[in-house]
Design goal:
It is a single chain. By secondary structure, the protein is an alpha/beta fold. Helix content is about 35%, strand content about 15%. It contains 16 helices and 17 strands. It has a 6-stranded parallel β-sheet, covered by helices on one side. A 6-stranded mixed β-sheet has the order 12-13-17-14-15-16, sandwiched between helices. Strands 3-2-1-4-5 form a 5-stranded parallel β-sheet, sandwiched between helices. β12 and β13 form a beta hairpin. The longest helix has 17 residues.
């Protein structure tokens, strides 16, 4: 066994001394998988939940216990660049990820990996829906949906569509022949230790041994300039492709970026040789019945003519700009902010200032002050830092008459109340945070539930 990207599979762990590092959703799935192989692993977590006496704390003997293992199956959220990870590798321990272990022995001809800073969840769900409706039962898993190696997720599938995060990508020692990448923008910098390493890690999902074709967002200058990090062949997809096509209308997904996501899904279907991929009528019929992802541009209610849109899944600037782009000409109270990962918010300021419709920006801790500062000193006209709502390429950073300023709010309740008062009549209160939820909420779902409660409070007021 090697200590880099290990070319080992789950079945290779029979009889080995194995540890699990991180005991969330993936860690618990890993435990079930190992027990199905007759392996009882050491369990370690940074912050073990109360009542889990069998799970050691990382800082209280956990690393020492993992150091006595041959293989440690690491949860994606734990950075492989952490000092503790370096210590384990130096001791000869192999660090692996559950998804990489699964992919190593999967039938990769029937697997598609989808990655990207934004759009990967929607594209994965659309692709899985279309495959299933075209008569090819498909599991959508990985970063969303099911954990493909979990015995509890076993089933009869023709294809697997796997959403791959930048964290998970670093665990893959192989790629399926067809991959897709939806966008590229700085993200998760503390985990990866820098923006260029993030780009390399993210795109590595497309270019490990076995990769043949990457279907990629052709509207992204960042992606085009890094085509050498993709598969040997690349097919570029633009939101302007297939002019006049309406087969994707039943998906009900707003915005130009979602049009491109649907087109990427179709291009993948063609690459897989799926019957119906070239038939607009068949695709339109297959698109019917699609249910969008929760907390992804989901209208959760209307109060006094104001729509409340939950986009809590947006944890970066690109999806937030895309959310604004989905509602052109509409008055929007935009709620942004959360865990501060040090990303550049100048592109967010540029995108908001370029809007012609009235836009009020309401910021939340902890990144709120930095977001407000970006609006106080926006990039100059034509700056390379300026963002585009549609594709992440350069945009005009000049201010528009519709910009209504920024307000730092102490919490989500205050931001929703302020936004509701300002958005009347006929506007939108849009929660699209451009930041993760951690620190103030358990996860994006918890943040979305808090947003819904705040909306109901507005209705009662």
């Amino acid at each position: 066994m090697t200590s880099g990207r290990p070319k080992i599979a789950w079945s290779d762990l029979r009889g080995a001394r194995v540890g699990i590092w991180g005991f969330g959703r993936e860690g618990q799935a890993s435990l079930r998988k190992l027990r199905s192989l007759g392996v009882e692993p050491v369990l370690v977590d940074d912050n073990p939940a109360a009542g889990t006496e069998t799970v050691l704390a990382t800082a209280a003997g956990g690393i020492d216990a993992l150091g006595r293992c041959e293989v440690v199956v690491k949860t994606p959220g734990i950075s492989r660049y952490r000092p503790e990870a370096e210590r384990l590798r130096a001791a000869g321990v192999v660090l692996a990820g559950g998804l990489g272990l699964w992919l190593q022995e999967a039938d990769r001809e029937r697997v598609v990996c989808v990655t990207g800073t934004k759009g990967k969840s929607t594209t994965s769900s659309v692709l899985g829906h279309l495959l299933t409706e075209l008569g090819r039962p498909t599991m959508v898993g990985g970063n969303i949906g099911s954990v493909p190696y979990d015995p509890d997720s076993a089933g009869e599938y023709d294809y697997w569509v796997i959403e791959v995060s930048s964290y998970q990508a670093t665990d893959l020692a192989s790629s399926p022949p067809v991959t897709a990448v939806t966008s590229l923008h700085p993200d998760h910098l503390p985990w990866h230790g820098g923006v260029e390493r993030y780009y390399r890690d993210k795109l590595s999902a497309c270019a490990q041994p076995g990769a043949e074709l990457t279907v990629a967002n052709g509207d992204s200058d960042l992606l085009r300039s890094r085509a050498g990090l993709l598969a040997p062949r690349v097919e570029w997809v633009s939101e302007s492709d297939e002019p006049g096509a309406t087969w994707m209308a039943p998906l009900g997904l707003p915005g130009r970026h979602n049009r491109r996501n649907a087109l990427i899904a179709r291009r993948v279907l063609r690459a897989l040789g799926i019957a119906g991929a070239d038939d607009d009528a068949a695709l339109r019929a297959a698109a019917a019945g699609y249910v969008g992802l929760p907390s992804r541009l989901a209208t959760i209610g209307v109060v006094d003519g104001v729509s409340f849109v939950d986009d809590s899944l947006s944890t970066n600037v690109l999806p937030t700009l895309a959310a604004l782009d989905a509602f052109p000409g509409t008055r929007i109270a935009l709620i942004v902010g959360g865990e501060d990962r040090g990303i550049d918010y100048a592109p967010l300021a540029a995108g908001v200032l370029a809007r012609e419709a009235p836009t009020l920006v309401l910021t939340l801790p902890d990144s709120g002050p930095r977001i407000s500062a970006a609006f106080a000193a926006p990039p100059a006209r034509g700056s390379a830092a300026a963002g585009s709502a549609a594709d992440g390429s350069a945009a005009d950073g000049s201010a528009a008459d519709g910009f209504a300023g920024t307000t730092d709010c102490p919490d989500l309740d205050a931001a929703v109340a302020r936004g509701f008062g300002w958005a009347r009549p006929g506007g939108i209160v849009l929660l699209s945070p451009a930041a993760p939820s951690f620190g103030r909420f358990r996860d994006y779902r918890d943040r979305a539930e808090a947003f819904a409660r705040a909306m109901r409070a507005c209705a009662r007021a």
